Amino acid sequence: MSSIKVFSLVSLCIILLAHGVTSFEYGEALTKSLLFYEGQRSGKLPSNQRVQWRGDSALKDGSDAGVDLVGGYYDAGDHVKFGFPFAFTITMLSWSTIEFQAQLEAKNELSNALGAIKWGTDYLIKAHPEPNVLYGQVGDGESDHSCWQRPEDMTSPRTTFKIDEEHPGSDLAAETAAAFAAASIAFKPSNPKYASQLIEHAKQLFDFARNHQGVYQSSIPQAGNFYSSSGFEDELLWAAAWLHRATDEKTYLDFLGGSSNSGGTRTVFSWDDKYVGAQVLVSKLVLEGKVEYSGIWSQYKSQAEQFICSCAQKGNSNVKKSPGGLLWFLPFNNLQYTTSATFIATAYSQYLTGKKALIQCAGGIVQPDELITLAKSQVDYILGSNPQKMSYMVGFGSNYPKQLHHRGASIVSIEKNPEPVTCKGGFDLYFNKNEPNPNVLDGAVVGGPDDNDGFTDSRSNFQQAETAIANIAPLVGVLARIA
């Protein structure tokens, strides 16, 4: 390389640093985001398990009900398997994989992405033993949260909870249908037999959700204090949109077109509110000319774009931004909303680019590349380009939350010290110690800073310093796109 080229590269780096521009290794972040799910695994761990500080756990799940519910993922820093956010996580991992399959393959992460999805769908298949029966939770949040133990030592009750015809849960059933349908698309190229199995489960659960209506916490009240649903209309639309994309069957398109409520303009996209997701999937159909841009179809598209406009700061009611530039939605675990909104911007950019289209917002035009710039700005903030100079992805960089609110990460690995940790003993031994966690849960995205960019790295600060499986799934696709 000539001295002139070396000089110009050095000059460019100095200029970028002077302007506060940080270059992140998005590929590394992508690898860690998928590694995270191995740290959250429940059940019998496979021989190719990469997170070595974990061991087998909860090997009798479902035995109280005479079913095999071993496997799946623990929800957050606890050991409950909450079906509602669990299914949303699988839907978003699948969506990430569908839209950015080529990029995942280029980074040698496609097999890990499919592995993360399959660990979830294998469990969900077990949880759906009959057309109108779905096991929606294993473990009780109240008793689980009163213990601080490794999953391998767990002594809290592993009670199972289900929905059925007499005890419906349209939101839970429909979200699980969406997860199955989306996953079927992800698996179709490599495992068509598995994909068709997933579709059958999706169709049965959608029918169950439609024909036996009600919110799931009425049937599983133990979920109400943790993941209460605000309604099921959004999940029905979301599931119909995924089933249509997976099968191309008119019945699901008719369901979307016959709805009297396309959701209106939303303020978040999350495990509880899927309207934006359904609106974006329908907008793709409009952009591709598969439905007419009129009536309810135009409403879906307009409402999807209004949400995106507000994230891009060109809407009528823009999403709040912290002084450091973070899209800020709600105080508790805000980054889950940031990652999902960032995914929406990234996926929609793809749809617009494919049709050489743009968005006309109240505050001006938004081009597809602007949405990628927005996505990068949020990813960069999460990875360390923020006032705290902290990566909110555990294990990325050197300055990240060292006291992640997470039982398994905070207690010395069973591989190093097999002596059991008792339910209450773990609090004094580990939770209350002002020391870094002995295990690093790579890829965990914490709740994140407050609306003024403030963050306290403390195990007791579960509002900011806890992770959850739904936080990371949308980020997988975004990282694959920009890596």
Automatic annotation (TrEMBL):
GO biological process: cellulose catabolic process
TM helices/strands, residue ranges: none
GO molecular function: cellulase activity
Alphabetized Gene3D superfamilies for the sequence: 1.50.10.10
InterPro entries in UniProt: 6-hairpin_glycosidase_sf, 6hp_glycosidase-like_sf, Glyco_hydro_9, Glyco_hydro_9_His_AS
Reactions this protein catalyses: Endohydrolysis of (1->4)-beta-D-glucosidic linkages in cellulose, lichenin and cereal beta-D-glucans
Active-site residue list: 405
Keywords assigned: Carbohydrate metabolism, Cellulose degradation, Glycosidase, Hydrolase, Polysaccharide degradation, Signal
EC number: 3.2.1.4
Glycoside hydrolase family domain: residues covered: 26-479
Top EC class for this record: hydrolase
Pfam families: Glyco_hydro_9
Residues spanning the signal sequence: 1-23
Family named by the database record: Belongs to the glycosyl hydrolase 9 (cellulase E) family.
Descriptive protein name: Endoglucanase
Taxonomic source organism: Quercus lobata (Valley oak)
Protein's gene: LOC115988059
